[in-house]
Amino acid sequence: MTDAAISIQGLGKTYKGGKRALDGVSFDVPRGQIFGLLGPNGAGKSTLINILAGLVNKTEGRATIWGFDIDEHPRNAKVSIGIVNQEILFDPFFTPVETLEIQAGLYGVPKGQRRSLDLLRAVHLEDKANAYARTLSGGMKRRLMVAKAMVHSPPVLVLDEPTAGVDIELRQQLWAYVRELNAAGVTVVLTTHYLEEAEELCDRIAIINHGRLIANEPTRELVGRAQEKIVAVTVDRDVAAPPANACFQKIALVGDRTLEITYDKSRVNAGEVLGAITAEGLGIVDVSTKEPDLEDVFLSLTRSVA
């Protein structure tokens, strides 16, 4: 057995026509973590997830799920993972409880071991257990998809854009449930376009762009890679035009007396930036800073290899 929940080595996929969707991607998802898999649209995330789900055949490389090679032990690999796709897929003429019972049957879960009502309760759908699934709202359908992925109690759960189109309250409920699953030992792989969610939830983040892995680091270390920093300086009098200085990457006038300055913290420090302002004869009344976040890093990395 490996310490990785998912291990991917040199994974590649070339579609008919020559489109290269994945190009030698290698990384491990540590057991017990919430792992973020990020990238722009078309970067190759869904292809990678569909390979793990057995829906797309890889061109080269190797992947294991919970220690089971997806080619050598496909049945064990599939039983070890639950996947919530972006698309909402289930029969609209079944009720939620019937949907979960059928899914559990497909995975060979004995009737006495099925947890359909417990799962519906966990995703706040107990009161909709016997309603037709087609009558559920978009947010309810997404939560039903999460419950459906957990019917066989897999040790790994993949959530592909699970909160797209979900309102804030339902999103918070979903993340609370994900945290509960993770605390109970489930390894979670998350793709999302809400970067603030990834920054808050994920222990580690990998970023894919144009089919290649361009980052794979603990979240705090990844955020720490951002070199740009922004400082807002309020001065003691009206400013007609923002002053220029070599230590500023950008400077903008955002009010009669407030200057917003972007600088590279690897080249200069905040003291030098403020010194450049006072050198213009301006008195400083107030200073506030904006710390870099995951969005800054994401944009920097994906633009640099675009």
From TrEMBL:
A Pfam family assignment: ABC_tran
Ranges for domain ABC transporter: 6-235
Q: Which domain of life is it from?
A: Bacteria
Asked whether the keyword Cell inner membrane is assigned, the reply is no
Give the matching SMART domains.
AAA
The molecular function GO annotations come to:
ATP binding; ATP hydrolysis activity
Q: Which Gene3D superfamilies match?
A: P-loop containing nucleotide triphosphate hydrolases (3.40.50.300)
Q: Which SUPFAM superfamilies match?
A: P-loop containing nucleoside triphosphate hydrolases
The alphabetized UniProt keywords are: ATP-binding, Nucleotide-binding, Transport
PROSITE patterns linked: ABC_TRANSPORTER_1 (PS00211), ABC_TRANSPORTER_2 (PS50893)
- In Swiss-Prot or TrEMBL terms, this protein is called ABC-2 type transport system ATP-binding protein
Instruction: State the organism of origin.
Output: Sphingomonas jinjuensis
Q: Recite the lineage of the species.
A: Bacteria, Pseudomonadati, Pseudomonadota, Alphaproteobacteria, Sphingomonadales
